[in-house]
Amino acid sequence: MKYILSISVLLSCFAFSAMIYEFDNEADEIRFNDLIKEIRCPKCTSGSLSSSNAPVSEDLKKRIAEMINQGKSNAEIKEYVAKTFGKESLYDPQFQQDTFLLWFGPVIFIFVAFLLFFLRRKT
Amino acid sequence: MNLMLRFLVLAFPIAFIGMFYVLLSTEDTYPGADYKVFEIPEFSLPALDNSSYIDNSSLEGDFIINVWASWCITCRVEHPYLSKLSREGIKIIGLNYKDERNDAANWINKFGDPYDLIIHDIKGSLALDMGVTGAPETFLVKNGIVVAHYQGEVNQLIWNKVFQPIIDSKKINLK
């Protein structure tokens, strides 16, 4: 029984499947897990970094873990990712001149719709 | 007023249809091309023959960087074209990506060496900093600054359409 158990543990694919990232404290680990959900996998058409085990995603996750352990902030890490793999790598687009319409487009649309609605009621 | 509203009701959908038509019909012929300008990240990695360490100061002037590996099938397809560029005197730096030293050396011995210098990046650290997602990928570099990046096989068509216009406009001297 003991042998069967130890062999099954050795052969278990789950025992070797996960990459292990080490952190100094739990807060950093939570930060890491949140970050890799907010960053897109560079190799996939869609899908987050956390869902991908493509070689480049593993490298990027390792780099992010390193940066967290070096005490880098989330903003610094996201800046690195956007710089190397393009700003489309971030699921949450940053506030910038070229993303203005993306952020405020819906608000402007609703405003115009309301305006037209009230103008119409008056006539 | 009523007339204007009627006009708007018609104009809005037409404008939307027009916008989608333009967005969807403009074909990006070379989706692998990227013209983001950035400096080569700081690095220090061994040469493939392990004779020395290569860092930013070893890379001077204008050249192309080609990311390759012995496990990469498209690199094999691309190889004759790189050899042709090399014969024309174009300076090519090889970035050997996530490859065993022996496998890479055998590949070079078997198929020929178009590279002026080969950097051995076994962990893919420099490649990651440069935004490499796989192999082959090629960068056009002017004085340590990357001015074009192509993901995928470089051939005569890609060279003419993606690289040559930048080489001409920025007066890059690869020889």
Provide structural commentary.
- The complex is a heterodimer of chains A (123) and B (175).
- Chain A has helices at residues 2-11, 14-17, 26-38, 55-69, 74-85, 100-122.
- Helix content of chain A is 63%, strand content 0%.
- The model of chain A has no long low-confidence stretch (mean pLDDT 85).
- With 123 residues, chain A is an all-alpha fold.
- Chain B has 175 residues and is α+β, with helices and mostly antiparallel strands.
- In chain B, a hairpin with a 6-residue loop joins strand 3 and strand 4 (53-55).
- Chain B is elongated and about 80 Å long.
- The A-B interface holds A 42-43, 55-56, 59-60, 63, 83-86, 116, 119-120, 123 and B 1-2, 5, 8, 34, 36, 38, 98, 123-125, 128-134.
For the sheet with most strands of chain B, the description reads:
7 strands, mixed
CATH class of chain B: Alpha Beta
Question: Strand-residue fraction of chain B?
Answer: 15-25%
* Total count of strands of chain A: 0
Global morphology of chain A: elongated
Average per-residue pLDDT of chain B, rounded, comes to: 92
Any idea what the CATH architecture of chain B is?
A: 3-Layer(aba) Sandwich
Percent in helix of chain A? 55-70%
Taking the alpha carbons of the first and last residues of chain A, their distance comes to: 87 Å
Please count the helical segments of chain B: 5
Number of strands of chain B: 9
